[in-house]
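Continuing from the previous page...

OK, I double-checked the sequence for Globin domain-containing protein against my notes and this is the correct one:
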Amino acid sequence: MGLTTAQRAAIQNNWATVNANMQEMGDALFMRYLLANPGDIQFFPKFASAGVGAQLRSNEAFQEQTLTVFQFLGQIVAKLADLDAAGKMLQERVHSHKPRGITMAQFERLLDLLPRFLQENAGAHGPCADAWRVAIANLMPYMRSEFKKC
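Thanks. Re-ran it with the corrected sequence; updated structure tokens here:
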């Protein structure tokens, strides 16, 4: 399936908006995720004791985690011209996350939120949101295959 040049450009241009306010974007996406999946806070021992709620946004460990994730997503966005390279980066994340009990379903829930979140918070409307969905659909199989292997 792949991404067209226009789709890659739309995602990368949209990421510039995200990059300008990366901490806030990361915090907001993870708050949305954790509010929808409150039990998953257990996978974040550095801030799990803070509990899910508004207080989490001021937690330094939470902010560090969300920034780390968004910086990694920025690396993926930069590699979209080579989906295989981007996919291999995601496979490495499987190796670091699966031993901690994180499942493919959890990755999917987070990534499923991303296009809508970017529409609402970073101007990823119409073809850009669709491009995000296509990119995620192209990258998920790399992660799924790696989950099956390890």
